[in-house]
Design brief:
This protein has about 250 residues and is an alpha/beta fold. It has a single domain, classed as NAD(P)-binding Rossmann-like Domain (Rossmann fold, 3-Layer(aba) Sandwich). Strands 3-2-1-4-5-6-7 form a seven-stranded parallel beta sheet, with helices on both faces. α1 crosses α8 and α4 runs parallel beside α6. The radius of gyration is 17 Å and the shape is globular.
Length: about 250
């Protein structure tokens, strides 16, 4: 129970990796707010059934009014905000194209969720974290930002932007004892995601650890960055991909 008494927001927590994040934070003792454009009640019910505290909110992270409501409802329900996991992103439904076939509309749609969303969410929780003089903001980037994966420019650019955002934001909020870090997973296999075979084969070939990556591989690092163990760690991006990207 390393997060006992803490309050966490997980954007995109209604399914897949986000749901795994939400369950793990609750298991470690945090009250969890699942902020998702999808219905997060199923995950919230699971957490409550296990004895935890959870709240599901219907939130579009690209909408400033929604992210403001997210912060207000979290404080109203649980009294504080200790952890923000900026997980919500457009990924599964992205079509892979050469960059010259990506429309401006598609570029803007990915950027609105993957870049503007984390910015708006951080902006929304900052006043409460500043008042508390403590907080953990964890941005979910991707190893594609280091690979430079082709035919995926809108997604790769958005995840690279989060690394820069992590570094710059860490410098702005450090004086308030707020830590900002990022996790950059490799390709994660999970129910509901059918990764292109060519990407899966490439990842397996390049990884030092020759197996598929699962959401569980990310939970230890998530807990570390959310807990007091990382109180002097900020501005960092931790690549968790089985030893594919080495830097």
């Amino acid at each position: 129970m390393r997060l006992s008494g803490r309050v966490a927001i997980v954007t995109g927590g209604a399914r897949h990796i986000g749901a795994a994040y939400a369950r793990k934070l609750a298991e470690e003792g945090a009250a969890v707010v699942i902020a998702d454009i999808l219905d997060g009640e199923t995950v919230a019910d699971e957490i409550r059934a296990a004895g935890g505290r959870a709240l599901a909110l219907k939130i579009d992270v690209s909408d400033e009014a929604d992210t403001g409501r997210m912060a207000l409802e979290t404080v109203k329900a649980f009294g504080r905000i200790d952890i923000l996991v900026n997980n919500a992103a457009i990924f599964i439904n992205i079509q892979r194209h050469p960059f010259y076939e990506i429309s401006a509309e598609e570029w803007d749609r990915v950027s609105a969720v993957n870049i503007k969303g984390p910015f708006l969410c951080a902006k929304a929780v900052f006043p409460q974290m500043k008042e508390q003089k403590s907080g953990k903001i964890i941005n979910i980037s991707s190893s594609t930002a280091y690979w430079g994966t082709p035919n995926f420019l809108h997604y790769v650019a958005s995840k690279a932007a989060l690394i820069g955002m992590t570094r710059s934001l860490a410098r702005e909020v450090g004086e308030f004892n707020i830590c900002v870090n990022a996790i950059a997973p490799g390709l994660v296999e999970h129910e509901g995601q059918n990764a292109p075979k060519v990407l899966t084969e490439l990842q397996l070939k390049e990884r030092s650890i020759k197996r598929l990556q699962t959401p569980e591989d990310l939970l230890g690092v998530l807990t570390y960055l959310a807990s007091s163990d990382s109180d002097f760690v900020t501005g960092q991006t931790m690549v968790i991909d089985g030893g594919s990207i080495l830097y």
